[in-house]
Structures are given as C-alpha cells and as structure tokens.
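Hi V.,

You were right to ask for the full record rather than a summary. Here it is.
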Amino acid sequence: MKFKLILLVIFLPLLWLIPAKGQEIEVNSSASPSKITIGDLVKVNITIKANKDFVFDFTGKNTPVGEFILRDFSLNSTPKDNYIIYNLTYILTIYKTGEFLIPAIKIKYRRGKEEGTVTSTPMLIKVISILPPNAKDIKDIKPIAMLPWWITYSREIITVIIVLTGIMLVILLLLKWSQHSYKIKEVSPPVPALSPEEEAFKALRLLEEDDLLRKKDYKNFYFKLSEILRRYLERVFQIPAMENTTEELKLNLKSIELPSEWEENITKFLIQSDLVKFARFLPKEEEALEHFQLVKNLIRKIKLKQDVISQT
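Predicted structure:
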C-alpha cells in the first residue's frame, strides 16, 4: 500500500506536463489605445501559441474589421521548443464618433485532416470628436433674404451698360477712322500654350524645387501633387477632374477605359491624398516620394497611349 502511494506521489505531477488538446493553441488579443480621437490609429495585437504541426491561413489586409479601416498589417513568427508563437499586428482607424466594437478576428487552421478556427476577443473602442466639449453645433440656415431691385436685375442692367458702351466705342472708332488714317500694327504671334504633358512636368519640377518633403509639409505636398494629376486628366480626357470628388472621379475614370492597373493606382493615390489633406494622416517620406514617381510615370504612360491612338 505504501509502495503504491509513493508511486502515485512521484508520477502524479508528471501528468500536468502532458498538454491537453484544448491547450495546443493559445490566443491572446489586445487593442491600444481604447480611447482615440477621430482619425487616430488603433493598434491591435493578436498572439497565437500553437504546436508546430498547425498550419494557419492568415488573411492579412483582407481581414474584416467591422466599421474600422485597416491601414496596415504585419506578421512575425518565433519558433520555441515544440511551439511557434505568431504575433499579428493590425493598424486600424475610423472616421466616426461613438463607441465601436472591433469584431472577433477569425483565423482558420489545418492540422493534417483536421480543420478549425481560432477567434480573438472582441474589443470596444471609444472614438471622440476633435471639437472641444463645449463647442456648439452648426447654426441653422437663415431664411432667404429679399435682395434690392438693382441687385435682382443686375444682369440686365450690366447687359444694357455693356451694349451702350460698345455702341459708343464703335461710334468713336468710326469718327477716328474718318478723321485720321492709321497704320495697321504687326501683331506678334501668340505664344503657343503648353501641352498637358508639358504643363504637368513643369508643375512637377516646381513642386520638387519647393522641397516640401524636407520641410515635412506633407499636406501642401499632396494638395499640389493631386492637383497636378487631376489637371492633367481633365485636359487629356475632357472630364471635370478638378471639380470631382474622389468617388465621382472613379466613375469618370471607368468611362475613359484606362487599363485597370492605371485606374487602380490613380484611385489609391487620390484616397491616400484625401487622408493626408483632410484626416491628418502623416505618411512616410519614402511613401510620398513613391507617390511623386507614380504620378510622373502615369503621365508618361498616358502620353504614350494617346500618341499610339492618334497614329492609328
């Protein structure tokens, strides 16, 4: 009896070293910060500890994140003993105020013929406005005011004045003609206008000389760079690109039948520009330089395509 008791005391602690099936995968998740200002970034970390024979299907930037926008994703893995530790990082943002739930992120796995899913914990994020707490709401629109009669009929009055002035000028010219002979002056030919490509490349050179990236003035840099591309598209394809919103311009791009890759690059650049101009997003300097080169290459490619079309 004592011998059995001794064996039980020796081998019972060893039973805790045998991993249970439910402990072969461990998932931990966190989000920081839990309270942000609209447009700020939230960092979501998910750590998965699993046996080496598990194969995971990480969806990366295609992961659904509810009402949030997925700005970036990274994955690192660290082997340790019989396990691999996966560290997943999601960078999210949102442009609404209130309390929003980062949904549970589902990750599929395979282990031989066995298939399953691990799930992170849903996390609540509070988003506050950039306005101060005591700021008042926008005032209601005032009722339409009646204008004085001379403003109401200003167009007609101006038209009459222009017509009378024109008649007087014609009379004065005829009188001068009858009294004096005049010599026809040679008019120098007008300076030819720049082509859309020449105008765009000139604007790009001036933007490069402004050295806004070295000054960290990303907002003005993206304002000018997006305006150069919009102006070029408007002149070449006769679309109101300068007046269009980004969504309206996306629809107009489909009507001019650009290659899908060019259309996608233009759309991504305009969305990135809107984030920098209106949502206080700060890009990396290398990313801004890539966008500058992207706009320059797009203009060259479109010019080559237009030249080919004009020759056929």
